[in-house]
Design a protein that fits this description.
It is a single chain. The radius of gyration is 19 Å and the shape is globular. It has one domain: Luciferase-like domain (TIM Barrel). The protein starts with 5 loop residues before the first strand and ends in a 14-residue tail after the last helix. By secondary structure, the chain is of the alpha/beta class. The protein is 40% helix and 17% strand. Helix 1 (32-45) runs parallel beside helix 11 and helix 4 (123-141) packs parallel to helix 5.
């Protein structure tokens, strides 16, 4: 083991929780009670951080939910997803600073670059807007005035009086496989996030991103967003993959995938390619199962196995250069507890630290 990891969980704010994949149940729909239960289970289980995803058609607002969690958590960090363009950057900076104060400095930010509801931008324009938002937020949240004359925003103003606990912008977690996305990450992200992929492809992306970051005069941390299914034995874990999929209607699964605003992205296309190449049981490689992608846009694969197999897979990823893991599983509260009992005690982990 080369060093500490950051091990995060996922709170299903976007109606992404199931007993049987693709079969919605009222008790598992996004709500303060249900998603709060997941978040508190992750804190109790010892996770370092928890992703609060953001969507438009699906579930709850991530910013409002983070405010509620400030009063219901005390240790776990919150990885707040924000969709660039949906909020005016100076006001968003003020909201982020306020949330960070409410959380005692426990806020991190997941930057999302998808289209806004009701609007479609070409990829260069959309990523250009995302980069401007990231630059504006960082400047303001570092406590500096801005004089910005960009393509999407023209602003000249002082930072808000409300600042973060550290006086610095919280770290940005950001992912995307297109060349434009990779360039934005190299220039402005702190953690570059990847969705599941076969190990040679993971290595290729990491090598490319390290080159891009170096060309921008920067270094990044690297993260991996993946589902998990861990049981006492491999046979039990494999059996659960069949149970989870046992009531899925393929047409309903396709409809679920298409609801996402990023359903046509390069990353989503890559998940589909991996799923198409998988074996008859849905495995793209050892312990990496793609069945979840049949009813989910975005992260579409799971590490499946007994505690030792799941642990070894995570350590392999760490040896490749990944140190931030955002995990999830169905149902989220139950799988959170299983991972916390079977795997988490064997991992060297703590929240990531970033240079000032």
């Amino acid at each position: 083991m080369t060093g500490p990891m950051e091990i995060s969980w996922f709170s299903a704010l976007c109606d992404d929780d199931y007993e049987y994949l693709g079969v919605p149940e009222d008790r598992l729909k996004s709500s303060l009670a249900h998603c709060g239960e997941i978040t508190q289970a992750a804190e109790k289980g010892g996770f370092d951080n928890i992703l609060l995803p953001s969507g438009y058609q699906l579930g709850m607002d991530s910013v409002a939910f983070a405010g509620a969690m400030a009063a219901l958590t005390s240790k776990i960090k919150l990885l707040l997803a924000i969709r660039c363009g949906e909020m005016w950057p100076p006001q968003l900076a003020r909201q982020i600073a306020t949330l960070d104060q409410m959380l005692g400095g426990r806020l991190t930010i997941n930057i999302i670059s998808s289209d806004m509801p009701g609007q479609v931008l070409a990829s260069p324009e959309r990523y250009g807007r995302t980069l401007e938002v990231m630059q504006l937020l960082k400047t303001l949240l570092d406590g500096n005035p801005i004089n910005h004359q960009g393509e999407h925003y023209q602003l000249e103003l002082d930072p808000p009086r409300m600042g973060t606990v550290s006086g610095k912008c919280p770290p940005f977690y950001f992912g995307g496989l297109s060349p434009a996305a990779r360039d934005v990450a190299a220039k402005a992200a702190d953690v570059f996030l990847m969705w599941p992929d076969e190990e040679p492809n993971v290595t290729a992306v990491l090598d490319d991103m390290k080159t891009r970051a170096a060309e921008a005069g920067r270094t990044l941390r690297y993260g991996y967003r993946v589902h998990v299914i861990v049981r006492e034995t491999e046979a039990e874990a494999l059996d659960y993959t069949r149970t989870l999929m046992s009531k899925l209607d393929d047409a309903e699964g396709e409809a679920i995938r298409k609801k996402s605003l990023d359903a046509a992205s390069e990353g989503v296309r890559r998940q589909a390619e991996m799923r198409d190449r998988a074996d008859n049981d849905g495995f793209a490689e050892e312990n990496l199962w793609t069945g979840i992608g049949r009813a989910r846009s975005g992260c579409g694969a799971a590490i499946v196995g007994d505690p030792d197999q799941v642990l070894r897979k995570l350590l392999r990823y760490q040896a490749m250069g990944l140190d931030a893991f955002i995990l999830s599983g169905y149902p989220h509260a139950a799988e959170c507890d299983l991972f916390a009992r079977y795997v988490l005690p064997n991992l060297n982990h703590k929240p990531l630290e970033f240079a000032a």
